[in-house]
Amino acid sequence: KAKNLLHDEL
Amino acid sequence: MNVFRLTGDLSHLAAIIILLLKIWKSRSCAGISGKSQILFAIVFTTRYLDLLTSFISIYNTSMKVIYIGCAYATVYLIYMKFRATYDGNHDSFRVEFLVVPVGGLAVLVNHDFSFLEILWTFSIYLESVAILPQLFMISKTGEAETITTHYLFCLGLYRALYLLNWIWRFYFESFFDMIAIVAGVVQTVLYCDFFYLYITKVLKGKKLSLPA
């Protein structure tokens, strides 16, 4: 589950 | 960043500012659900903990700080400064019926079973239903001040614009986040009857009054 979990949305 | 997301964020910011100014200028929180505002404060707190761990952009950080600051300022005005004008009798939605199922769902359905990711998921699910106490309060009082309807319109519009943002990002960036999209659809659908009343009544200069 190495999803890019950096949520760049507000 | 795309035009839908930017206008969505600005619509969200407008809603937050409209509400804060309405309470501050009129020195009254009549018709405002304090419970919804507490839920929004929780939504921002659990979603923006990454302020402490990652930096994305000046815009991202400053908007998060503004959202959190305004959310807590609004809760403060409702429950402390102008608490005499808080209509607790009509703000009677049982928020535990929202928080508990949303918390359980966030633990079961998420992208990654990590602390910050579960909190982010909880925040996404909670935001989709956080307006229910406010809509419930309006249905109980049978009416809403016009400024409150503008607040709700901007708030509902923001996530509708985010839906367009996700279509844009899917098409141009092949990015999509099913959890955010499903919750965003639910959130926007909850505003549909309000949108209908807003467009057919408020925009025609009438007062928003529900058939009591």
Automatic annotation (TrEMBL), chain B:
Database matches in InterPro entries: ER_ret_rcpt (IPR000133)
Major location category of this protein: membrane
GO molecular function, one term: ER retention sequence binding
Record membrane topology: Multi-pass membrane protein
Family: Belongs to the ERD2 family.
Protein name: ER lumen protein-retaining receptor
Signal peptide: none
One GO term (biological process): protein transport
GO cellular component, one term: endoplasmic reticulum membrane
